[in-house]
Write a structure and sequence with these properties.
Number of helices: 4
Strand content: 25-35%
CATH topology: Alpha-Beta Plaits
CATH architecture: 2-Layer Sandwich
CATH class: Alpha Beta
Length: 95
């Protein structure tokens, strides 16, 4: 069953966030991931969202592949690079 990682991203320091983006570029694809959507929130239809919030949705073949991506040493190294430069909240969804 396909699995999706849905990330809510708020970039605090664009320059400081760049090393994270560079580190994980192409990484999801090595685990079978495919970007379904990524970009800024253009309108909040219900509830609230922070100014400048971005949403990233990546589809994986299954939840094991999605977890392997998040647990990979490369992703962990990238995550460490974004500390203080951005806030990321992730959800894993099957469907």
């Amino acid at each position: 069953m396909a699995a999706f990682i849905v990330s809510i991203v708020r970039v605090i320091d664009p320059e400081g966030f760049k090393p994270y983006s560079a580190k994980i570029a192409g990484l999801a694809e090595t685990f079978g991931g495919e970007y379904v959507a990524r970009g800024p929130v253009i309108e909040t239809l219900e509830g609230t969202s922070a100014p400048g919030e971005r949403v990233v949705v990546v589809r994986f073949p299954d939840s094991a592949s999605a977890r392997a991506y998040i647990d990979s040493p490369t992703y962990r190294e990238g995550k460490a690079l974004r500390q203080g430069a951005g806030e990321v909240s992730m959800r894993l969804i099957e469907g």
